[in-house]
Design a protein that fits this description.
α1 packs across α2 and α4 packs parallel to α7. The chain is 75% helix and 0% strand. It has 230 residues and is an all-alpha fold. The protein contains ten helices and no strands.
Amino acid sequence: MKLLGVPRALRPLHPILVYGELFKIFTMAKQNRSAPVMQSVLDAVAERLMAGDELLIRIPEICEATGVNYGSVYHHFGSREGVIDAAYNMIFTRLVEEDLAIFHRIDDTIESFEEYVEIMGPVITSMSSGPERRARRAMRTRVVAAASTRPSLKILIGASQERLTAELEVLTESAQNKRFLRDDIPARSLSVLFQILIFGRALDDISAEPIDEAQWQGMMGHLFLGLLAK
């Protein structure tokens, strides 16, 4: 039956199109319901990854601990490796989010060069000092090491890492425009350098005789002063 002259929005939909739309709605609703359930699986796997070797993780034990059906886990993640990759990515992303939150809070509160020097220097130093930050560095290093032989994980954490660098680049460029930081070095290069200062200490962490905190903090202070606008 032709419906010439009837606005498209008022024409009855073809049964196949109606079914397709209903199927999409049903699928999206099902995915939304499964998200909290699978989050409990990721939380359980992440907890075990942070406490021990991934080789010790058993999906049946995870299912028993979370009450999630074994088949549902494999349907959602595809494999044991898929579950572990997703958990690694969640850990990595959370660490990125927490660090970004610190830098954003600084950017929101600092108004003068003096405040920037007074606040930013100690923050960069503290973010690479102490046992808690050492544990964070170790976890980040572990995820990166795992990604070196797992292409799918590398893609996952690569997106989070790029977002960290990009957002730090914006914050660094803002500091340069305010004449807090020297502008003869590209903002992106400085944003990567800040991350090296914070996470690069992971190499010294495994040394038989790592540098002591006082010496490290003094060195960080000198490096930070060298990045300030003249």
